[in-house]
Structure formats: C-alpha cells, structure tokens
Amino acid sequence: MRFVAQSLWVSLMLGVVVGTTHPVHAEDRNSAPARSDDSIVKDHLRRARRARASGKWTEAHAAYKAAFEAIDSTSVTVRESAEVAGELGLCELKLRKFRDAAEHLAWSLERRKALSPEQQKGFADGLAKAVPFVATLYLSVDPPDAEVLIDGKPIGLPRRTYRLFFEPGKHMVRARAPGREEGSQTLDAQPATEPIMTIQLPRAAESSAKDNVPAVPKALSASPPARPQAPGQPASWPTTLRIAGIAVTTATLSAGSLLMIRATNLDGDLSERRDGLNGGATASGSRCWQAADRPACADLLRLRDERNLSAGVGTAMLIAGGVIGAATAASFFTDFSFLGLTPAQDRIHASPVATGREIGVMIEGLW
C-alpha cells in the first residue's frame, strides 16, 4: 500500500508539471530585441576610440573603416557620418595613407555645416597635411550623368564635377553613359599638383541596323523625264564656243584699236616731218615721193609704210572682231534644245538701252 501511494503521488506531480508547461513558439524564441545597425556603428566607434587612445592606429583604422562602410546601411545622422569620415581620415594620415586620408577628410568637409568649429579646423588641417603628397584632379564630365571609372573602378554616384585625389603615377580616367561614346584620358599624377581635366562624350553613331532593313521594292513605272541641266555647269560645246568667242572678240578689238591709234600717231609724225622738209610747201609739191635717195625722204617713206601697215592691220582686226562678236551674240539667240540643252529663251534676256549719246541692246543670260 505504501508503494501504491508513492506511485500515485509521482503520477500526480508529473501531471501537474505537464499540464502547466506551455508550448514554445517560433515568435517566442525571436522575441528578444535584435541589435540595430546603429548599435553596430556605435560598437565600431567605441572600439576605434579605445584603440586610438591607446596609440593602436592600425586597429583604430580598421574599426573606423568598418564604421564608415556601415554608414550607408544605417540611419545615422549627417553629423555622425561626417565625424566618422573625418576621424577615419586623421587615422589614415597618421598611417601615411595620404590619398585615402585626403579623400575621407574632403568628404567630411563637404558636410562641414554639421561639424563643430573644432572639428572643422582639425579636419581642414589634416587635409592640408595630406594634399602635398597627392595629386588633386579637378574633373568635369559631360553629360553629368556619365559614370566615371578610375583605373577601371567606379567612384560613386555621377556628378558634373569631381575633386579626386591620386597617388603619384600613371592613372586611367574613363567615363561612359548610355547612348554616348566612351571617353578616356591618361593622368600622370605628380605630388602637390592640381591638374584640370574635361571629358566630353559625343553621341554614339546611329546603329547600323538601319542598313540591314530590307528595301521595299519599287513598282515598275515609266522612265522618269530627263532632269534639266543645272545652271552654271559649262558641259556643252556651245557654251565653250561662246566663252572663246567673247575672249577672241575682246582681244581682237583691243589689238585693232591699238594699231589704229598707232597709225594715227605715225600719220601725225609723217605730216610734221614732211612739212619741215618741204619748207612749208603743200603735200602735192613734195619731191620725196620721186627722189628716194635723200636720207630725210627715206625716213618719210618708212613712216608712211608703217602707218599704212598699222592702219591696214588694225582695220582688219576691227572687222574680224566685229564679225566674231556678232556671231557670238547671235549664238545666244540660237535654240539648241534639239541637242538636249536649255532652250535659248530660258537663258537669254535682251532689253533695249538708250541714252543721250548712244542706243544699244543689253543682253543678259547664262553662258
């Protein structure tokens, strides 16, 4: 009976334990508050500050860098972001990482309004110490939405202008944008220099896909009418002959006129010498035309022959020039449409001209 009583008491105790135990749900297991991202950043900062206070700059740099990289995924304030970047830059300056220091300090000072005056001065002094060891590039890109890559690595969100820091040496600066041709330039970075660079991306050439589009077959039709010859293109023999005729007419008339002037001058000289030789006698009484052995008479005969030759040749050239000019003028009124050329009435316009001293015709047209 004692054994039965003990067994009954154990059974009752187990029933109470089992009845008072509640099932464990998943939400109960996860009900503990998770660590926020803000606390992660603060943990990095506490670790970084302890290491910096102990003079462990390498450890401090690693902690500050982890905090800075975690900023994008947290809801920290602008002031906290600027402080982290500035402290990271000062730590890198201590480790002689001059390019990284200049980059992070400049990033922090771009948000200087969120910093205290002491922080602004400290970060500005640190940037002034780092700049002499790097090259500061001022870069402008067009279009402003182009992506910029330095030595093959993108540098962040697109901007129109950049202030970039480079370690001494050769670097490749490249920009690309949709619908534009890529642009690139080589930078020979020298310490304590501030080069300026501009990259403009021209629009990409149209795709050659248009060339692959099959042409639409044209319907058969009658041959199109002949297109009239464009004016101003001397491609026919009448035009060439007209130009030559005008040139020959001008030269012939000019030469004939000069010869006639020369003949007139020789005739005047001949008259003066003949009057002086005859002593005032009339021309009919001159004895030189019968006695050519006298020297004075020989000169008179030579002048007479030159006068007659100049007058004859000049008259012939004037007549020839007039004939050629008349033929050239007549060609302007000739219709060469049967040769496939422009009709004469479309090229020539003649209008009478009358002044107080002369009457003529003004001809205008295409040669």
UniProtKB/TrEMBL annotation:
In the record, which residues are listed under signal peptide? 1-26
* Name of the protein described by the UniProt record: PEGA domain-containing protein
Query: Signal among the record's keywords?
Result: yes
List all Low complexity biased stretches.
219-236
InterPro entries per UniProt: TPR-like_helical_dom_sf (IPR011990)
Q: Where is this region: Disordered?
A: 203-237
Q: Which organism is it from?
A: Sorangium atrum
Keyword Ribonucleoprotein on entry: no
Write the record's keywords in alphabetical order, separated by commas.
Signal
